[in-house]
Amino acid sequence: MDNRPGHQCQRRLCNRLNDMSALKFLFREGSIGSMTVRNRIVMAAMHLGYAEDGYVTERMIRYYEECARGETGLIVCGGFKVHRLGGGGMGFLSIDDDKYIPAMAALNERLHFHGAKTAAQLFHAGRYAFSFTIDGEQPVSSSAIPSRLTRETPRELSIPEIREIEEAFVAAAIRARAAGFDAVEIIGSTGYLISQFLSPLSNQRRDSYGGSLQNRARFGIEVIQAIKQGCGADYPVIMRHSGTELMEGGNSIMESIEIARLFERAGADAVSIQIGWHESRTPTVAASVPHGAFTFLARKIRSSVAVPVMTCNRITDPALAESILEDGDADFIAMARALNADPHFSKKAREGRFDEIIPCTGCNEGCLDRIFTGQPSTCMNNPVRGNEEEFSITGAERPKKILVVGGGPGGLEAARVLAERGHRVTLYEKTGWLGGRLVYGSIPPGREDLRKTIQYLAGAAERAGVEIILETEMTPSLAKAQTPDAVVLASGARTRVPDISGIDSTKVAAAEDVLAGRVPLGQNVVIIGAGGVACEVGIYAARKGAISPEAAVFLAEHGVVPPGEAVELARRGSRQVTLVRRGSAVGETLGRSTRWVILQELKKLGVRTITGAHYLELNDKGLLIQLDGRTELLEADTIILAAGYEADSKLAERWREAAPEIHVIGDALAPAKGIDAIIEGARVGRML
């Protein structure tokens, strides 16, 4: 067995489509009411955090302009707050006053110049609004049901207040049309205000807006009708709608189909199908969600309505998008994170440059996880997003000879940018593959898409003219002999080895060696550490030995085992896995969009997690710890080190004579996430 981790994906680019004729559906014109769209690719609304006091900014215009320049068909901007109590948080856009029209008009002028059609998403958070974002006022909703998302209880809207908000939606739509938007999209999905009226979970009213499905849909219906009346019947209205709420006791697909019919009859020109509520405990945006997993919802709704249907969620490559359209599952493909990763997705796909598409891997490190912590959005694989001005590439004043040491993500990004600026760049990697720690990160179940990051970064560096030399360990003396003008050190970090008696036991292995298959796993596995890497290794170990999904379907279909048992056989193997750490939290290095998914998976797999432990010793039976004042032996056949990494503090000093300029980036400087390494590579590439 080849023990080179990730060797199968190095310097091999995915090209499942070989000619333009393969994309005959994706690049057909489409219509939404009176609006003609140049292709079937839609940039779905995505909160970016770029607004200032509710205004569209130049930063935002540049962000969306790249999507328009990249031949996206329809760009849905927003959401735009329509009412003072409807705000979603810091950096949100507003459309509740005429003062916002000029900046929106400037946005539309720039996007229309490149041939894109535009829509403004009209937004009211309802009980998803935090009181501190609406000047300390109590959030509002269909009923006074506490929100698990905000941990606040809203007050129930009165009928006059419902009328006020409906009028706010109409006024917002009129402003959108005045600002040049070709359409509006109403967000009636994912748990926001209109969803709160639709769902029996959050709507317990006893008046004409509660009770029956028709009554619960009344608010959304009236918003559509009022906008049509206010803006004209020819002005396109798209309704964003959850195909299923993924909430126990909430609307299922059957109710969602009927709701879509009601919205169509009210005048909606298209329905855009989303999945779930933000409170749902079913993953919808994590990397572990299979590509196109929820498209069946759009198919079911499309068969029940006559207006165009959009589908979304984990649709990130042209082949999948094309197949969805060809199979008749949807009329348009809505993408947010995929176009956040590469705004030129459409143009590259149309031209057959599939290997040049910057991939979205569903990691959420640059987008959702940053938004959840109040930071503006970008992308791990493309840090230019949202930073178009800062990260523009200009030619070097004087071409230099530059060595890059290390072929991880930071080194590859630095090398690419340096070469594109005109420098002569050689990258040295001591192993036989590229990708650094990202290679190992792509091995656990649900993280396979990270291989696409490696493929893209390696291919982009090669296309830029970087000379890549593998299986060569560069040293300061060898580098100095080449007389470079500068050296970029991106050589990574080493595994942290905790000071525990017996740590040199043959039972002990680094997480990377386990993931690469260089070390066999015993039946009892103890993992030292409980950060992101440890959690993912825990899932890998617990699932190793599980039967394939195809085998599970076969067994269930033929009655060999009950369906539930077949799922369990496909979910996990037979190993007993324990994560143990000194600290107090599990998975604290994981982003907010991912952490709960990982912790939920560990629990389902039966992985034991121990925090607050004191390590006593490793012996021939396992790991002896002290926990809550008592001693416990964690029996182990295999002990995996996943307690983090540490940089070489003397690295720069050893290299200082190798070249006039020495730059240390990525894990070599300080162990961090992939996004940090790539951003550092992008910055140093523009500095030299």
UniProtKB/TrEMBL annotation:
Transmembrane segments: none annotated. It comes from the Bacteria. Keywords: Flavoprotein, FMN, Iron, Iron-sulfur, Metal-binding, Oxidoreductase. GO terms for molecular function: FMN binding; iron-sulfur cluster binding; metal ion binding; oxidoreductase activity. Residues 31-355 form the NADH:flavin oxidoreductase/NADH oxidase N-terminal domain. Residues 401-653 form the FAD/NAD(P)-binding domain. Pfam families: Oxidored_FMN, Pyr_redox_2. Its cofactor is [4Fe-4S] cluster; FMN. PANTHER family: 2,4-DIENOYL-COA REDUCTASE, 2,4-DIENOYL-COA REDUCTASE [(2E)-ENOYL-COA-PRODUCING]. In the N-terminal section; belongs to the NADH:flavin oxidoreductase/NADH oxidase family. This is FAD-dependent oxidoreductase.
